[in-house]
Amino acid sequence: MASNIVVPQAPSTSDPAVYQEYESKWTTYPTDAQGWLQRAKEVADVLSVDAAAREKANKSPRAEVALLKHSGLLKLLGPKKYGGGEQPWSVGYKAIREVAKGDGSIGMLLGYHLLWSRTAHVVGNDEQAERFQELIISNNYFVGGAVNPRDNDLKITYDDEKITYNGFKNFTTGAAVSDLIVLEGAIHDRPEEHIFAIVPTAQAGITFNYNWDNIGLRLTESGSGKIENISAPWADALGWDPVTKKPDPAVLGIPFPSLLLPTIQLVFSNFYLGIAIGALETAKKYTTTSTRAWPFGGDNKEKATDEFYILQNYGNWFAHLRAAETLADKAGDEADRIYAAYQNNRAALTPQERGDWAEWVASVKVVTTDTGLRVTAGVFEVTGSRATASKVGLDRFFRDIRTHTLHDPVAYKNRELGRYVLLGEIPEPTWYT
């Protein structure tokens, strides 16, 4: 009998050989924060050259992930003893922002990787954190995830030796081009209990539908995936005791693991910010080289750069982006302070301190969303009708930021901040706060 089962086929992929020269060019990694941010800028410069064309082609971004690997940016937060950069989160956030200036999709992939690569440090025990850092950093692995909270949880069954995941996720950003994938699920007979695990991606039972064909962030491989009978030993159940088969209260019974949520929310805001800055920089090049002054206004100018409305818009956007960057840097510095103070003393982190940082992060989310959408939509007003040509590619910035700012409604961040400032309430930790 003929089978009616259709196995999803991988789309055409970008060729990693395109960026092969950078493997030999970047033979050593930077040694300080300034060097790492310069490396991120170099990556952005490479990506920006043909970002519009690559986005249209919508190929699976294996070449772009290879470029990130060559650059060393995947190792930026990892310990030096395994070959990492040992930089704090503030530098990671700025690197995400820098790469996103050149290509929002790849800035997003870098951001998600940095979060997932540190998952065991937040929700795991010390042994797990160390073991997974050695695995990820020493092998220069790229990490994706299948943890979309809006879907039903993956269902976990278990026996004495292992836990086993089954289920479906609509969004699996970066997972289809990853070496490792972060899974999260709920135990079938105790659905209030959740377990994270990190497993190899290339194994039977993990299939991707390659159906990410959205208007923006087209090179993030954020389509759906199916998880069938994927197992991990109890020793890899992050934050769980492999003997008692229960969550370790010293790891998961405290506020510290919930830092994972503001940490990734700040990832989002930094690539929003990078995309918006990239839009302004791209528009600036176009305005100064191609935009013409308007000859029918009664106050005719020789050059577009003399037009009052053009100068006013650029100045206003620049001011708001500067303010957004300063706010994002403040929240990043606070991330450094919290992780430095409590990574080795997790039980000392209070709900109030966690909540205060979450509201710095919420503030950044509101400001980068509002400013990013306004800048990326507005750049056409200062470039002119010819700038809407497909070859210019200015539209990609708006499409990218519009796509991800729908991830979770910014209205709820405004409400959250309202309760914080008006009533002194800190947010209850959820999958989105």
TrEMBL record:
Q: Which GO terms describe its molecular function?
A: 3-methylbutanoyl-CoA dehydrogenase activity; flavin adenine dinucleotide binding
Q: Which domain of life is it from?
A: Eukaryota
Q: Which organism is it from?
A: Podospora fimiseda
Please report the name of this protein according to its UniProt entry.
Answer: Acyl-CoA dehydrogenase/oxidase
Q: Which UniProt keywords apply?
A: Flavoprotein, Oxidoreductase
A biological process from GO: L-leucine catabolic process
* Keyword Disulfide bond among record annotations: no
**Entry-linked InterPro entries:** Acyl-CoA_DH_C, Acyl-CoA_Oxase/DH_mid-dom_sf, AcylCo_DH-like_C, AcylCoA_DH/ox_N, AcylCoA_DH/ox_N_sf, AcylCoA_DH/oxidase_NM_dom_sf
Report domain Acyl-CoA dehydrogenase/oxidase N-terminal positions.
Answer: 46-136
Question: Is Transmembrane helix included in the keywords of this UniProt record?
Answer: no
Where is each Acyl-CoA dehydrogenase C-terminal domain found?
266-407
